[in-house]
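User: My notes are a mess, but here's the protein and pyridoxal-5'-phosphate's SMILES. Can you give me a structure?
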Amino acid sequence: MSPRFKVRSERARGIISKRVESISPSGIRKFFDIISTMEGVISLGVGEPDFTTPWHISEAGIYSLEKGYTMYTSNKGLLELRQELARHLSSRYGLEYNPETEILITVGVSEGLDLAMRSIINPRDEVLSPDPTFVSYGPCAVLAGGVFVPVPTTVENDFKVRAADIKKRITDRTKAIIIGYPNNPTGTVMERHELAEIAEIAQKHDLIVVSDEIYNRLVYGVEHTCFATLPNMKDRTILLGGFSKSYAMTGWRVGYAAARPEIIEAMTKVHQYTMLCAPIIAQMAAIEAVKAGEAAVEEMVADYDQRRRVMLKGLNDIGLACFEPKGAFYCFPSVKGTGLSSEEFAEKLLLEEKVAVVPGLAFGEFGEGYVRCCYATAMTDIEEALRRMGRFVERYG
Ligand SMILES: Cc1ncc(COP(=O)(O)O)c(C=O)c1O
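Assistant: No problem, the inputs look usable. Here's the predicted complex:
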């Protein structure tokens, strides 16, 4: 074998980084690649509003194009958007963030999560997060060089994470906790006094809390607690907020991070070398959303709430026991009674009844035995999906 050939083959073997090889592709996407090849499927799968962006918000984007706003913005994002967000956080939660130094506009919460991890994690630092968990938290921690430590949650506690379970997993290397309430995939909302216990742990062990509050506006009959409002937490929290869910703006790719200046400065450094800035058109539309989107949000929330009730009752009626989710737009029923694993359930349901749900295992070990059903879809589709699922459960129950 010639030396030249040898070098090439060694390169080929190691072409993908070990870090990237160590993470799996999202269990959600894998499933939806199959669905895209089928016809007549009712999807309770993708976690995305079925509303289009309210027209006045889209118009602001279109108008920005007409005015010739087609250039970069500052790395941190349009100052006007940061000022509007600072006003919004102040009036909604009484939190004062300096728009110049404490707010960064990101390409969705997705980018915010990545920036947060890359800005605070050193090699082998441990990052805790309740399991089942949103699919990106673990991979973002690992890609930043950290170690992801899932904290089990159970249906007996409505999938709320217990302080005792967090405490048990804290070591000298624990650097951060990522929480996301209202939660994807469970729909769980944690109350203020429950979150306060996490705050105490963060204070005692000097941890940063990354709080993904993308579903902050989607709560039903309960109040959302912004984690940064808890005593001593503003300086310890990286608050991640978005437009995708509340304003039905998933395709615009815009979100924000709010945190103390040194953290925002660090996140901006990574952002400027990778994204440079969020798209200006999306930022212009986001200004309109924060300034004048409230009525549309309230209408959508009322609509989701009706669908939530129908799905919750329907699932329990057909024998898929489900606790009451008080936020986001997901139900997380148990499929244990069918004797199928969550992946078998989702696959057979798709092939036999053409209803798509996401296996709980896609969200972590403690999601096994459950499936995620998204109710951000037409009421008629929810009703038909429930009929089909009822037939399916009768066969397997
Ligand atoms: C909990 C959670 N965080 C973040 C995201 C990503 O949000 P964005 O569209 O702002 O990147 C999602 C999307 O499903 C989500 O469910």
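The longest helix spans residues 294-317.
User: Great, I'll file this with my notes.
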